[in-house]
Amino acid sequence: MDSENLPADAAAPGTVSVVIVDDHGIFRSGLRAALGPVIRVLGEAATVEEAESVIGATAPDVVLLDVHLPGGRGGGGAEVIHRCSTLGTPSRFLALSVSDSAEDVVAVIRAGARGYVTKTISGPEITDAVQRIASGDAVFSPRLAGFVLDAFGTASVAVDDELDRLSARELEVMRLIARGYSYKETAKELFISVKTVETHVSAVLRKLQLSSRHELTRWATERKLL
Amino acid sequence: MRPPLLRRSDGVIAGVCAGLAVHLGIKRSWVRIGMAALTLASGAGVFLYAWLWIFVPTAADKAAERGRPTGPAAFMQDIGTKDGKIRPAAGTGAAPPRPAGTFDAESWRERTLRAGRREVLFGTVLLIAAAVIVVQLLGVPVNWGFLVPIAVVATGAALAWSQLDDVRRARVMNRAGAGRASGMLRLLAGIVLVIAGVLVALSSSGSWTLTMATLVAVLAVLAGVVLVLAPWGLKFWRDLETERAARVRETERAEIAAHLHDSVLQTLALIQNRADSETDVLRLARAQERELRQWLFADPARDPGSLAERLRGMAGEIEDRYGHPVTVVAVGDAVLGPGEDALAQAAREAMLNAAKHAGGAISVYLEAGPDTVEVFVRDRGSGFDPAAVPADRLGIRESITSRMLRHGGSSELRSDGDGTEVRLRLPRQAGSAA
C-alpha cells in the first residue's frame, strides 16, 4: 500500500517480490502457483546456506520462510533471519510452518519474522499476508494470537508501554484474531480503522520480540503444543 | 509336572540346594548331604554347586522376566534360621503379610545374618579341613602351607563372586545405595583376600623381606595387567553402550515405521483411490494430519479429560464427518466438571450447526480465565436470522441456550452476512459447584 516502503528495485508499484525458502520442492512449487499475480517470485532456496545467498543476491521484499530448514548450524528459519540481518538486506520475513510447536514459532518470531502462518493457508490469504508484510505490518494467524495470549496472559493489562504485558486494546485485538476474525472484521467489531488494528498488531509483535519476560521462554519450552 | 529349577531365595548360601530340592521333590537335607558327599569326591560338589549358582536363575530373576516382581515375596516369610531344617516351600498361594517389594534389602540382610553367613563359612572351612584330615589319615602328605592360602583365595573369590547375585537382585529390586556400598566393600574384601592368599602361597617358604618384594612384584604385575587391559575393557564397555544405544534407536525406528505404515501409507493409498473426490481427499488429509500431529506432539502430561482436549476431539470428529476444517485455539484450560461438560456439548452443537449450514472453515476459540470460561465458535457462512428459525427446531434453543442457562452460564448468537458466531460463557465457580 505505501510504496515508499518498498525497495527501489521493485519492478512496478504494487507488485511484491518474494523468495520462497522451504526444503520441500513440492511445497515450493505449490506455493508458487498459489501466490497471486501481484507477487513476483525471485527465487527459491532449500537450505539455510542457499537461503542466505539467494536472499543476499535478490534482496526480495518478503521472504516466505519455513521454520524447519536443513543446513547451517541447525537453527532453521531463525538462523536464516539472523544471518540476513548481518547482511543488511531490507527483506522482511513471514514464517510458514506445519509445526504446532510453540518453541519453533516463538524462536522465529523473536529472531525477527514479522508474522507466522500455517502451511494450510489458502492462496488469496497468503497473497494478502505477503502484501501486508511488505507494507510493514505484522501478520498473525489465530494460532499465533493464541500463543501470544497464552504467553502474556489474558488477565493483567499494561499501563504505559510495558513490554511484558499487553494493553487492553491489544488484548481485545488478539482475542478477536484468535477467534478467527480478519483485520477488517476486527476493525469493524472494535469501531476502529484497519490501520489502527495493524498498529496494535505491530505493537504486540514488538513486545513478543523484545520482551525479556521470563515466562515467555519458559512457557515456550514447556509448551510443546498449543 | 516338576516345578522349574530355580534358585530359592530362602537358601543358605545361594539357594541352589533348596531349589534343587523343590525341583526334585525331595528333602533339602538330602540334597545338602548329597552335595557335601560329592564335595568329598575331589571337590566335585563344589564345582557342581558353583556351576548351578552361575547358570540357574533365581525365582526373582524369573519373576522379573515375566514382569511379576511380586512373585518371590511369598517365599520370603517364615525363613528358618538353622542349617537344613527350613520348612519346605511355604505355599505359593499364601499371601505374604509384608507388602511385596519391601522385603528386599532389609530382610535379605536380616536373613543372611540369622541364617548365618558366618556359620556357613565356618561350616565350609570345617568341612574342607575335615576332608584334608581324612586325606592325611589315608596317608597322603598334605602341604598345609599351600592349602591355607588356597582356602583364603577361594574365600575371597567366593566373596567377590557373590556380587553376581546382588547385581541381578539390584536390577530386579532397585536397591538403595547402602546395598551398593556393601557390594563394593565385599568386592574389595574379596580382592584383598585373593591377593593375600596368593602372596602367602608364594612366600610361604621365604623371609619377610622376600614377602615384601613379592608384594611389590605382585602389585606391579597387577598394575601392568590393569594398564594393558584397561583400554580393552573400556573399549568393550563403550562398544556395549553403543550397541545398546543402536538397539534402542532401531526399536524406535521400527516403531515409527510401523506407525507410518499403519497410518500415513494407508491414508495415501486411500487418497489415490479417491483422487476424483475433492472433499474426500481433503477430509482424509485433514484427518491424517490430525492423527499424525497427535502422535508426534502429544504431550503425555496433558490431561485428556481437559476442556481443551475435549473440544479438539469434537472438532476432529466434526471435521471428519463434514469435511470442513475446524481450527481450535485454546488459551488456558479447564478441568471437566458438569458445567464444563455442558459448555463442551453446547460448543459441539454450535460447531455442528456451522458445519451443516455454513460450510467452510470454522474457528473455535477457548479462553479459560480465573473467573470465566468462554468458547467462541465462528463460521464464514452467509449468516441467518435467529428469529426466523422455526419454533420446532430445537438445536440452538435447547442444546445451546437452555443448556448454558441450566449451568449458570449464558450464550449469545450473532449472525450477519460475514458469518455467524456463537459465544458461550460459563462462570467458573458456578460451573464447579453445579
Structure description:
The complex is a heterodimer of chains A (226) and B (434). In chain A, strands 2-1-3-4-5-6 form a 6-stranded parallel β-sheet, with helices on both faces. Chain A is of the alpha/beta class and 226 residues long. Chain A is globular, with a radius of gyration of 17 Å. In chain A, strand 4, helix 4 and strand 5 form a beta-alpha-beta unit. Chain A contains 10 helices and 6 strands. Chain B contains 15 helices and 5 strands. The longest helix of chain B has 66 residues. Chains A and B meet through helix 6 of A and strand 1 and strand 2 of B.
The largest beta-sheet of chain A arranges its strands as 2-1-3-4-5-6
> How many helical elements of chain A?
10
Distance between the termini of chain A: 33 Å
The amount of helix of chain B comes to 55-70%
Total helical elements of chain B: 15
Most residues in contact: chain pair:
A-B, 20 and 20 residues
Helix-strand pattern of chain B: HHHHHHHHHHHHEHEEHEEH
Shape descriptor of chain A: globular
- Low-pLDDT parts of chain A are 1-11
Element order of chain A: H for helix, E for strand: EHEHEHEHEHEHHHHH
Sheet of most strands of chain B: 5 strands, mixed
**Structural class by sheet pairing and helices of chain A:** alpha/beta
